[in-house]
Amino acid sequence: MGKKKAKVRYSASQEVLLARIKSDVTEHLSGKPRRLAHSLSVARCAERLAVTYGADPFLARAAGLLHDWEKACSVSEQISHAKELGIDMGVELELVHSLLHGRVAARILPERYPELPPAVWHAIAVHTSADSDMNPLDEVLFVADGIEPLRPSSPGIERVRKLVGKASLDDLFWDSFTGGIAYVIEGGRYLYPRTIEVYNALAARRNRKKG
Ligand SMILES: [Fe+2]
Ligand SMILES: [Fe+2]
Questions:
Q1: Is residue 134 part of a domain?
Q2: Longest dimension (CA), the chain
Q3: Ligand 2 centroid distance, CA of 39 (Å)
Q4: How far is the CA of 145 from the centre of ligand 2 (A)?
Q5: Does 3 map to a domain?
Q6: What is the CA(67)–ligand 2 centre distance, in A?
Q7: Which of 72, 77, 105, 207 has minimal CB crowding within 10 Å?
Q8: What protein residues have CB closer than 5 angstroms to ion ligand 1?
Q9: Which residues span the domain enclosing 97?
């Protein structure tokens, strides 16, 4: 509490690009003020996590700003966009509609921001479902999305928030990811079959590491 966080320094061209992205997102999500506030908050949180855990804060901030871009659209529009783009989730897209917006944004935004590298689009693509080979930037965005300060508190979210800076990034991600699965099951929601595969791949790797 009350600890001053040093401002991250960017190059002039990075500052210009971040300002352009922020202004685009602000306009694009103007009809959804809470989604906009969440996006700005994820950007700040992802930047801070990136600094803490040695990922690239510029890419983390850009990914945070853009991750929910497609949420400006209704669910049925998101499904149509995913169909138009030929996005294949292995199940009917209607069943996994909440996972599509990351995949869609990752496909449509590179044309708008050719300055940003594929790493940003990968992090955005997997911010909803996660994957078995998450790199630090992917994990930073995933965790930031789950714990940004505007997200209402829950015991699971509080636990992850308290672990920032103490636990490893892999552990923070693991807690966020498994907390998300618990949320899906507790609410009786459809669990994406690939999530079970990702869970098992990660669990096996973690258990091997523990020995
Ligand atoms: Fe999202
Ligand atoms: Fe989000």
A1: yes
A2: 51
A3: 6
A4: 5
A5: no
A6: 6
A7: 207
A8: 68
A9: 12-210
